[in-house]
Amino acid sequence: MIIASNAYTEGEWTDVKDHIFAGYYYQVASQPLSGAAQAGILRGGQGSWDTRTVLSNIRRDAHGRLLLGSLGNAGNYPLWFIRQWADRVQQHYFPQLGRIEWQSTWTGRIGFTPDHLLRLFEPAPGLLAATGFNGRGVTTGTLVGKCFADYLLTDDAAALPVRFSNNNKKVSGRSLRTLAYDAGFTLYHAGQCLRVVL
C-alpha cells in the first residue's frame, strides 16, 4: 500500500506530516474566452511557469478559460486582491485580451520541507509513503510512483530516487513556517499589484 496524500494526509499515518509544513497554491479562472482570444494565447494548449521569486503558472482549461496560479492561500486574501493580482499578471503576459472577468478561485495545499527535498518512508513492511513534493508533485509524484512500484516488485532500494527518510528528521515550528511563507508570498503579490515587482 502507498500513502500518497502529501499535505492532505489524515488518520492513522499522520506522523508522516511531521516531516513537512503546509504551503498553499491558488488558481484563478477567467470566464471562458472567445474563440479568437483563445487562438491568440497558448496556441499549443501548453501550460507555462515563470521563474520569479514567487512563481506563477498560466494555462488554459478544456472550456477555454485562462487559469493563473501562484503560491499563497487565496482563502486569506480578499477577492479584490486576488482579482487585482490576476489582472496584473494577465495584462503583463496577454495585454491583447483587454480586461477579462475572473470567474472562480480555489486553493490547494502542498507539502514543503526545509531543504526542498521530498521524503520517502516505509512506516511498516509493504507500506510506503511519499511527502514533501515542494510544489512539484505532478512530475515528481509520477516518478516516485513508478519507483515505488519497482521497489515493491523487486525489494531493491536502488529503485528509489532517494533513500528512505530518518523518522527523527521532523520539522519544528510547522505552523510558524506556514505563516511565514504565506506572509512572504502575500507581500510579493502585493508588490505585483502595486507594480513594484512583476
Automatic annotation (TrEMBL):
Keyword Oxidoreductase: yes
Coiled coil: none
Keywords: Oxidoreductase
SUPFAM superfamilies reported for this sequence: Nucleotide-binding domain (SSF51971)
GO molecular function, one term: oxidoreductase activity
One protein family per Pfam: DAO
The FAD dependent oxidoreductase domain, residue ranges: 2-150
Highest taxon listed in the record's lineage: Bacteria
Protein name per the record: FAD-dependent oxidoreductase
